[in-house]
Design a protein that fits this description.
The chain contains 14 helices and no strands. By secondary structure, the chain is mainly α. It has one domain: MetI-like (MetI-like fold), CATH 1.10.3720.10. α4 packs antiparallel against α11. It is globular. The two termini are 40 Å apart.
């Protein structure tokens, strides 16, 4: 029996080690490639070891560090505002749906679920945002479209409240004179911290990684670019300069491929730093918020 348990543990630890390596090795290759010369990358491709060490990519990005810091600040602002409003709207939508006595609860839930299956299409949506709400070339155009409300988050929040916040607690609070707002803020929210942290992390990743809103809704106000859009423009500029320098016979020696790797490193660092603080609540919230529908 002891031998079987030991063998099982060895197999499981070996499997976990393999999964950890499978997650870590791509980031290591990304890091190594960002510190490899353009010539070595063109000659031997991507490697897990340094073949020809070079900091040219980071030196190129250091030359535009002021703009990168400004773009970082815009991303932080957009993400902070977007995540905060996303969580507030999700809670305010999900809490009434968790109440069994809400009139029209099933109809509202159906229309909410319907939006997960069908939408109006890109062109009508774009026209509504730009011609009706006039979000083009504005900060709101980076926050509101596609990201501010998520039906999946609402359903997760509703399910969590329904299954993990006993209705008897709310009823007892109301007997003591508590209002709906007090029940929400003093009972439901403190008991829903795991799912709130989960939704906040999902929204944070979505806002931080989003670059489509910048492409669709920002045409002239490039000063509103977040880090993703700005680094994309840097990468495109590096490709353009390298291509035209080769055609004109003038070699600018721009590290095109390694710059892409360095850009990916710079963009992913904040998410890697934030995830450990949400990990415990994220796992618990996903588990408890998706068991029952």
């Amino acid at each position: 029996m002891i031998t079987k348990n030991l063998a099982f543990k060895i197999v499981m630890y070996a499997l976990l080690a393999f999964l950890v390596l499978a997650c870590v090795m791509p980031f290591w290759m990304l890091f190594v490639s960002s510190l490899t010369s353009e010539t070595a990358l063109a000659k031997s491709g991507y490697n897990f070891v340094f073949t020809e060490f070079s900091t040219a990519a980071y030196e190129y990005l250091w030359g535009v560090r002021g703009s990168i810091l400004r773009a970082y600040g815009m991303s932080v602002l957009i993400t902070a505002v977007g995540v905060s409003v996303n969580v507030v709207l999700t809670v305010l939508f999900a809490y009434p749906l968790s109440r069994q006595d809400l009139p029209g609860r099933r109809v509202i839930s159906f229309f909410l679920f319907f939006t997960m299956l069908f939408n109006g299409g890109f062109v009508p949506t774009y026209m509504v945002y730009t011609q009706v709400f006039h979000l083009k070339d504005s900060l709101a155009g980076l926050i509101i479209p596609y990201l501010l409300m998520n039906a999946f988050h609402i359903m997760m929040m509703r399910t969590y409240i329904t299954t993990n916040v006993p209705k008897e607690v709310n009823e007892a609070a109301k007997i003591d004179g508590a209002t709906e707002v007090q029940c929400l803020t003093r009972i439901v929210l403190p008991m829903s911290k795991p799912i709130i942290a989960t939704i906040a992390l999902m929204a944070l990743i979505a806002y931080w990684n989003n670059w489509t809103n910048g492409i669709y809704f920002i045409t002239t106000r490039t000063d509103l670019y977040g880090i993703q859009n700005y680094l994309t423009s840097v990468m495109n500029n590096a490709t353009f300069l390298q291509t035209h320098s080769m055609g004109s016979g003038v070699n600018f020696k721009i590290p095109n491929v390694s710059v892409r790797m360095a850009i990916a490193i710079i963009a992913v660092i904040p998410v890697l730093l934030m995830y450990p603080f949400f990990q415990k609540s994220f796992v618990k919230g996903i588990t408890l918020g998706s068991v029952k529908g």
